[in-house]
Structures are given as structure tokens and as C-alpha cells.
């Protein structure tokens, strides 16, 4: 059994451990069945294990709200934790647990391919900063994988949370699709995380997902999939692609017009990374292109830098299909890339959403955030 300690922290995850009734659970066909020991872990008095250095206790103190959290595992490549790999800590997590399993991942570069299976519920990975704790891989389609199997990190289990950690795929622009994170985790949260890649960096495959204060890097279709995903206070960095290739930030893949899926970017910043900036913005960067017929993306209350092409959006290919069935919108954006005077005029483009229309893409409505986000303790904006 993994060693555990009770610490006073200001990590948002503390609220989960104190309010287990609000934790996400899978459908009733897969009922959660926590053991008595798992329940005791949430409230019992546990002594600090010998392997947890005092400096780690200090590291995990006070950033959001004071509370009590149970740390179940510490990962450190130098052997000062109770696991040397993140994968081993995930393997040690209980299955279908209604209680949180919290893993502190110490600073380091972890060359691992992680899979959080559909039976690993309510897993939390807490790093030591997106520039300090990094999970890295380099699989790609050109290197022999398909898009899904190229992912450095794959997450399926409900209620996944990551904080202060980066997931990256370093295959590079020449290697075509190369996913850093593939997520189908329902009611998942990424807070202050880095997602770094080139083509297809973030595969927001399905379910409800929330990203806050994250840095996301890429070139082609680097945020794609058919989740209902809300990005708040994130910074989106376009990178230098293959010569002659444009950048496309999103490729949302909604197949059914009745589904409430789509991508919403609120209070975000769209910018260029240093290499692209040094290229004097000679590469065209678009907000997105329609992967499927009912692709749906909204940018609102965000800062769009000069990296964004004046046309805003680009067709999937020369056939120009889906332009009347997609839904692309903008509301109250600022910055040199936010001018609407040269935006494309496809039937599905809504350049001047009303406040009422934009409200459909807020946390309250798009991801029903008021029903579950408040229990996480993470800051979020419910409406406009």
C-alpha cells in the first residue's frame, strides 16, 4: 500500500477531499465502490512517512485555499519518493474509487507514455510548475503510429485533474500528427499546465473538459476533437510550421448538430511563440477550420494578437465543404487580430455574437460548470 500523509495546503484539490459527495462518478452501470480503507484515507490521522522530505511539505503549501489533503504517492526520478515513474503511481491508484488519489510529481523530465484507464477515477497529478515537471514523448504518425496511439498521455477515467505539470510531444513539425494529450475524461480539469507539440497537440476527444491558465503550443489543428471544452485564461501559442503550411489553432469535430459540444475560449490570449515571432509573422495563423460538418468554436473576451490572420478562419480543404453548417463565433475580443473587417463571410460564421448568444459558451451552459466546478476549488468564471 502506498504511503500517505496529511498536509495543510492551499491546493485546489483539497476541496475534493473534504467534499467527496461532489466528486464525479461514472454512469450507474459502473458504480463506485470505495473500500473502507479508501474512505478512511480521507479523514484518518496519518503520520508523515519517512520518505517525504520536509522541503516537499513546504513546496506544497498555500497557493489557493487552506485545507487538508491526503498525498497518496510521491514520484521522483531520484528515488526520494515512493515511485520513480508516474506510470507506477498510476498503477497503484485504486480502481473505480469515489475518493481522490493524489500524486505529487516532483520536478524532472519524465520520459514516459502514460495511460489513465477508464477504471482509474478521480486521479490528481500535482507537479512543481509547468516548466519544472514535464512528461515527454515523441511518437508520431510519420514515425509509424496512428494519431491516437501517438499520444504521450492518454486519459479516460472520470474526474482527472492535473496541476502545474506539462505534457509534450517533441516529434516536431515534420512528423505530422503527434499528440501530447488525448483526453476523454469527463469533468476533467487542467490548471496551470503546459501542452506542447506541433500538429494535433491536444486531442480533446470527448466529454466535458475545463482548462484554466494553461499554455498550449502547436501548428496544425493543435486543439481538436469533439469534447465540450472550455478554455479560460489560457495562452495559445502558434509555432513555426513546415514551410508553406498555415497554422490552424482548432479543428473541432462535432458530428451531431444536437450535441452540446464545442470549444470555447474565454479571457484567453492568442500569440506567437518566440520562433514564429522571429519569422516576422510570415506564416498565416487561423483560429480554426471545420474538421466535420457541425464544427463549433467560439472566441470571446480574448486578446488576439497580430499572429491571427485577418480572415480569421480557413476551409478544411479546397472543396470548401461544411461552411454553411459549422458554427464559428466571436464576441468582445480585443487586440490587432480581433478586427472583423476582413473576416470570412461564410453562412456559419457569426462575427458579432450578442451577449445572449455568447452566454451559451460559458462555463455555466457549455460545460454545466456550476454543477461541479465549484467543488474543485479552482477559480472559474461562470458567465460573461
From TrEMBL:
Keywords: Aspartyl esterase, Hydrolase, Signal
GO MF: pectinesterase activity
GO terms classed as biological process: cell wall modification; pectin catabolic process
Signal peptide: 1-22
Domain of life of the organism encoding this protein: Eukaryota
Pathway: Glycan metabolism; pectin degradation; 2-dehydro-3-deoxy-D-gluconate from pectin: step 1/5
Pectinesterase catalytic domain segment(s): 73-370
This protein's record includes keyword Hydrolase: yes
Catalytic reactions of this protein: [(1->4)-alpha-D-galacturonosyl methyl ester](n) + n H2O = [(1->4)-alpha-D-galacturonosyl](n) + n methanol + n H(+)
Alphabetical list of SUPFAM superfamilies matching this protein: Pectin lyase-like
EC number: 3.1.1.11
Gene3D superfamilies associated with the record: Single-stranded right-handed beta-helix, Pectin lyase-like (2.160.20.10)
Top-level EC class: hydrolase
Positions of the catalytic residues: 221
Stored PANTHER family: PECTINESTERASE
Protein name: Pectinesterase
Amino acid at each position: 500500500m502506498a504511503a500517505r500523509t496529511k498536509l495543510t495546503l492551499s491546493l485546489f484539490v483539497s476541496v475534493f477531499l473534504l467534499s467527496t459527495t461532489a466528486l464525479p462518478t461514472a454512469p450507474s452501470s459502473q458504480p463506485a465502490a470505495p473500500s473502507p480503507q479508501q474512505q478512511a484515507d480521507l479523514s484518518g490521522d496519518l503520520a508523515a512517512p519517512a520518505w517525504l522530505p520536509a522541503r516537499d511539505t513546504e513546496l506544497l503549501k498555500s497557493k489557493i485555499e487552506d485545507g487538508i489533503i491526503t498525498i497518496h504517492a510521491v514520484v521522483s526520478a531520484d528515488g526520494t519518493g515512493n515511485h520513480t515513474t508516474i506510470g507506477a503511481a498510476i498503477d497503484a491508484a485504486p480502481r473505480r474509487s469515489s475518493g481522490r488519489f493524489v500524486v505529487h510529481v516532483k520536478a524532472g523530465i519524465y520520459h514516459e507514455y502514460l495511460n489513465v484507464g477508464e477504471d482509474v477515477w478521480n486521479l490528481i497529478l500535482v507537479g512543481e510548475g509547468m516548466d519544472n515537471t514535464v512528461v515527454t514523448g515523441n511518437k508520431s504518425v510519420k514515425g509509424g503510429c496512428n494519431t491516437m496511439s501517438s499520444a504521450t498521455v492518454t486519459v479516460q477515467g472520470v474526474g482527472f485533474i492535473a496541476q502545474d505539470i506539462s505534457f509534450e510531444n517533441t516529434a516536431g513539425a515534420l512528423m505530422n500528427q503527434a499528440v501530447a494529450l488525448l483526453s476523454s475524461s469527463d469533468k476533467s480539469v487542467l490548471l496551470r499546465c503546459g501542452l506542447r507539440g506541433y500538429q494535433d497537440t491536444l486531442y480533446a476527444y470527448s466529454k466535458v473538459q475545463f482548462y484554466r491558465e494553461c499554455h498550449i503550443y502547436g501548428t496544425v489543428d493543435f486543439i481538436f476533437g469533439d469534447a465540450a471544452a472550455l478554455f479560460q485564461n489560457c495562452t495559445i501559442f502558434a509555432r513555426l510550421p513546415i514551410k508553406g503550411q498555415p497554422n490552424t489553432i482548432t479543428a473541432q469535430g462535432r458530428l451531431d448538430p444536437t450535441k452540446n459540444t464545442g470549444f470555447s475560449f474565454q479571457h484567453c490570449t492568442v500569440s506567437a511563440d518566440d520562433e514564429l515571432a522571429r519569422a516576422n509573422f510570415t506564416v498565416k495563423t487561423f483560429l480554426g477550420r471545420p474538421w466535420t460538418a457541425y464544427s463549433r468554436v467560439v472566441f470571446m473576451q480574448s486578446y488576439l494578437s497580430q499572429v491571427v490572420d485577418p480572415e480569421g478562419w480557413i476551409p478544411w480543404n479546397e472543396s470548401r465543404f461544411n461552411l454553411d453548417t459549422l458554427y464559428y463565433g466571436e464576441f468582445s475580443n480585443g487586440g490587432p487580430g480581433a478586427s472583423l473587417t476582413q473576416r470570412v463571410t461564410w453562412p456559419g460564421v457569426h462575427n458579432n455574437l450578442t451577449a445572449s448568444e455568447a452566454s451559451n459558451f460559458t462555463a455555466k451552459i457549455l460545460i454545466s460548470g456550476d454543477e461541479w466546478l465549484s467543488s474543485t476549488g479552482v477559480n472559474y468564471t461562470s458567465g460573461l
